[in-house]
């Protein structure tokens, strides 16, 4: 008998230590400023439930148009490219960009507050649908700016030496960067969970309110959401205090090893992208989104090719393979708003229950992120994506079951226990965390391997590339919603007239198509990349 074999209790203890205790042990005060900015991004979800109901009940916008709006709302994240280079150029003053982002977020929240509390006055200036589009663009613009700075702050936050002044080993640095990026995703998802809990409290009893009282409640939510820009600004203040304290203790301030040269193609390309997007977005051009996507992807690929020259050939190939896998994983289409409309109209889900779904989803995502951290630190990104793809396929099944009425059969055979709401708890309709988890290994890789004087630029360009995947996802979602048309009842708030009727007959085919694409396409891409010169073992 082998007495050296560890017992089950010992293995569980080791797992608990690697997964939870080690994560807590690696926490440092220097991590807090970027985590506060990331947490603010998560708290932004406070208005997601309100926005979904306001859009459904008061704005006459089709599911395909709303999916198209998601494309335009994603464009600011692509602009992380020139913004990241600005951070490298003006490293000392990068925190000022947080204030710019906070101002844009505040403006978006105040517009939505005006729409829900004074719709007639807002309509006198511009159509409510137009106000909604403006608010929808301003918010992600602010969050994208703040995210660029937070990414740069994560590099600053991770120490390179221990308390005795000795440099950490390569594996120790890798583990610390993985932990830092994991904590960043944890902060975002914790923000989601926190605001979901607040939404549950706010909307307690809201099902008994009439539409006018609900609008007042919606306005209160937007006012409470003004805490978001305050959180991110507080993170910047804490960052300044921590850096000042480190300098007072004799530590040299973190700065690039060499001066960053201006990369004019990045700055001018970003400016040209903004101009092109504005011109096409305001013009009556049928293929404006497709044109912007094609041009943006071309520019980003060009800039990536220039940046890859800063890496060794082997590193460059690994990064290309890694980015390609994550791009395809994030580019798969989603069902679109029609699924949420179906849950509200046909299944009777109210604001409070959607908030409960958001809370449960966020908590499960948080647990999954913590549990998977050792796995992500020791396994290749390809293996992580395969696992997440299979998980996405499994998590898509409850949506399909609800549409085809499985809940009616289960409720009848379980005394009403396993009803639609019970099944929906397994659902990720409100916010899928899998994309957040997939980003952790790549962000950690960049933090470890990118040249010091171009860290923020590498973060921004690679993030822009992977965020282009979300734009591709929005386009795919729009196309599928044009093929499988889903409509809901819309009542004109000023006249009370019905502007649209409900038709969910095509939603089932839409969900099946999305589910198949979401599983098959990423697995094929992982197979192709891992059998090519761009194979990633990182």
TrEMBL record:
Keyword Oxidoreductase set for record: no
GO cellular component assignments: membrane
UniProt topology in membrane: Multi-pass membrane protein
Superkingdom: Bacteria
Keyword vocabulary terms for this entry: Membrane, Transmembrane, Transmembrane helix, Transport
Transmembrane segments: 35-54, 61-79, 91-116, 183-203, 215-241, 262-280, 286-304, 316-333, 353-372, 384-402, 510-529
Location in the cell: Membrane
Keyword Cell division carried by entry: no
Matches recorded under Pfam families: BT1
InterPro entries: BT1
Protein name in the entry: BT1 family protein
